[in-house]
Amino acid sequence: MPVILIGFMGVGKTSLAYRLDPNYIDLDRAIERKIKRPIAQFFERFGEAEFRKIEHELLASYAEHKGLIATGGGIVEYAPNLPILEKNPQTIYLKSDFEDLYERIKDDPSRPLTLQGKVGLKELFERRAKLYEAVASQTIDVSQKTPDESLQALREVLGH
Q1: In order along the chain (160 residues), what is the average pLDDT of each group of 10 residues?
Q2: Residue 111, marked binder
Q3: Where, in this chain's numbering, is ATP bound (predicted)?
Q4: Is 7 annotated as a binding residue?
Q5: Residue 72 assigned to a binding site
Q6: Is 114 marked within a binding site?
Q7: CATH number for 23
């Protein structure tokens, strides 16, 4: 079974995954390879519902993978993903408080969801946080932690 990292955008899923295992699977990059375009372009042309179906297909295809998978922050938005995440014994929620995350992502042009403003992002954060907590087998609070401290906490949870 894979180690699956979940959490809100900007929490460090991709960065930590790379530092832990340079051969990790970045689910968003795998999706982009499959759809042959950036996710933002796909969203614009085909919509979120189509994107989530493809995301689900890939997540399901990696269910027996033995490595590390970094997911996109919205993985919990599509109900068929929830049982896959919940059944996996190593679905790890990287948790941080909203203000820390907002400061990290607010000016990032590669994150179109930031265009909805702080209030909209906070609502999204709160909705997703409940879902992350519901499906995670373990939670690591990375609030106020440096990347090195977060990596160490992840290693401890994984027994590395």
Answers
A1: 93 94 94 92 88 95 92 95 96 94 72 69 93 97 93 91
A2: yes
A3: 10-15, 111
A4: no
A5: no
A6: no
A7: 3.40.50.300
**Residue 127 annotated as binding site:** no
The reply, when asked if residue 96 is annotated as ligand binding, is: no
For residue 87, say whether it is annotated as part of any ligand binding site.
no
100 is in an annotated binding site: no
Asked if 139 and 156 touch (Cβ cutoff 8 Å), the reply is: no
Instruction: Quote the number of domains for the chain.
Output: 1
Amino acid letter, 21: D
Helix, coil or strand: residue 2: coil
Q: Do the annotations mark residue 15 as ligand-binding?
A: yes
Q: Which domain holds residue 124?
A: 3-158
Q: What's the pLDDT score for residue 28?
A: 92
Q: Which pTM does this prediction carry?
A: 0.92
CA–CA distance, 39 with 107 (Å, rounded to integer): 19
